[in-house]
C-alpha cells in the first residue's frame, strides 16, 4: 500500500494536475472568504457551503485518472497478475488522492488565522464544519475512485463521479420538498444533506459513522470490481 501511495503521489506532483487543482481551490476559497468578510457573516457557514460546491468539480477531476489511466496504459494487467493485495492497491490510490485533498483543506487554515488575529477565537461551529468538509471530501473521493475503476476513459470516469455527486445533491434537495418519512429517508441517504448539519454547528456522531461507512462501502465495491477483473484476466 505504501509503495502504491508513493507512486501515486509522485504521479500527482510530477505533473501539473495537483498544482492546478490546488491553485483553483485556493482561488475559489479566497473569493469565498472575501465575500464572507465583505458581508460581515461571522459563522462562516456560507464559506464552507461554497467550498462544498467547488469540490463537486475539483474532486472528480482529481480522481478520474487514478485507476482509469492504469487500465488504458496497460499497467493494470501487471498489477492484477502480480502478488499485490487488491485492498492495499485501492487504499494506496485512495489515500494518495485524499492526501492531495487534505493539502487543499489545510491551505484554508490561513483564513482562520486571519479571523483569530482580528476576533481572537475560532468558533466550535467552524471546527465542526472542517470535520464535515474533510469527511464529505473523503466520501466524494471514494465515489471518484469507484467511477475510475469502471472505465479506461478518464473523461467518462470524471463525468460519472460528477453526476453521482449531483444525484446525491438532488436526493437531498428532494427530501426537503417531499417531507415526512420519505423526505427523512432521502436526506439520510444524501452525503450532501448530512454535511449541511456540520455547517449549522450540529455535530452528530452518527453522521461521522455514516460517512466512514459510506467510504468503506465505496472502496469495498471497488475492490470487488478489481477482484472480479483479476479472475477474468486469468
Descriptive notes:
With 234 residues, the protein is an all-alpha fold. The chain has one domain. The chain is built from twelve helices and no strands. Helix 2 (16-39) runs antiparallel to helix 3, helix 6 (86-107) crosses helix 12 and helix 8 (124-149) packs across helix 9 (154-178). The longest helix has 29 residues, at 205-233. It is globular and about 55 Å long. The model has no long low-confidence stretch (mean pLDDT 83).
Summarize the structure.
The chain is an all-alpha fold and 234 residues long. Helix content is 85%, strand content 0%.
Blueprint (SSEs and pairs):
Elements: H1 2-13, H2 16-39, H3 45-63, H4 68-73, H5 75-81, H6 86-107, H7 109-119, H8 124-149, H9 154-178, H10 180-189, H11 191-199, H12 205-233
Helix pairs in contact: 1-6, 2-3, 2-6, 3-8, 3-9, 6-8, 6-12, 8-9, 8-11, 8-12, 9-10
- Beta fraction of the residues? under 5%
Rg of Cα set: 19 Å
State mean pLDDT (0 to 100 scale): 83
The number of helical segments is: 12
The coarse overall form would be globular
What is the ordering of alpha helices and beta strands?
HHHHHHHHHHHH
Taking the sheet with the most strands, its summary is:
none
Q: Tally the beta strands.
A: 0
Number of spatially distinct domains: 1
Structure classification: mainly alpha
Q: Give helix % range.
A: over 70%
**pLDDT < 50 stretches:** none
Distance between the termini: 23 Å
Amino acid at each position: 500500500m505504501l509503495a502504491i501511495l508513493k507512486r501515486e503521489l509522485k504521479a500527482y506532483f510530477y505533473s501539473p494536475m495537483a498544482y492546478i487543482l490546488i491553485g483553483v481551490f485556493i482561488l475559489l476559497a479566497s473569493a469565498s472568504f472575501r465575500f464572507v468578510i465583505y458581508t460581515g457573516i461571522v459563522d462562516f457557514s456560507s464559506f464552507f457551503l461554497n467550498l462544498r460546491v467547488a469540490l463537486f468539480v475539483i474532486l472528480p477531476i482529481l480522481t478520474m485518472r487514478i485507476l482509469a489511466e492504469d487500465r488504458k496504459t496497460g499497467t493494470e494487467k501487471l498489477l492484477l497478475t502480480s502478488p499485490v493485495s487488491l485492498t492495499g492497491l485501492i487504499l494506496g490510490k485512495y489515500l494518495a488522492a485524499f492526501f492531495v485533498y487534505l493539502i487543499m483543506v489545510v491551505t484554508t487554515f490561513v483564513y482562520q488565522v486571519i479571523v483569530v488575529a482580528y476576533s481572537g477565537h475560532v468558533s466550535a461551529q467552524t471546527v465542526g464544519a472542517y470535520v464535515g468538509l474533510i469527511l464529505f471530501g473523503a466520501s466524494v473521493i471514494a465515489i471518484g475512485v469507484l467511477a475510475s475503476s469502471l472505465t479506461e476513459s478518464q473523461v467518462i470516469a470524471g463525468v460519472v463521479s460528477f453526476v453521482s455527486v449531483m444525484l446525491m445533491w438532488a436526493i437531498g434537495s428532494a427530501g426537503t420538498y417531499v417531507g415526512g418519512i420519505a423526505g427523512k429517508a432521502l436526506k439520510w441517504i444524501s452525503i450532501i444533506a448530512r454535511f449541511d448539519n456540520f455547517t449549522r454547528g450540529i455535530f452528530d456522531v452518527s453522521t461521522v459513522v455514516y460517512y466512514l461507512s459510506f467510504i468503506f462501502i465505496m472502496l469495498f465495491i471497488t475492490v470487488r470490481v478489481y477482484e472480479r477483473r483479476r479472475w477474468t484476466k486469468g
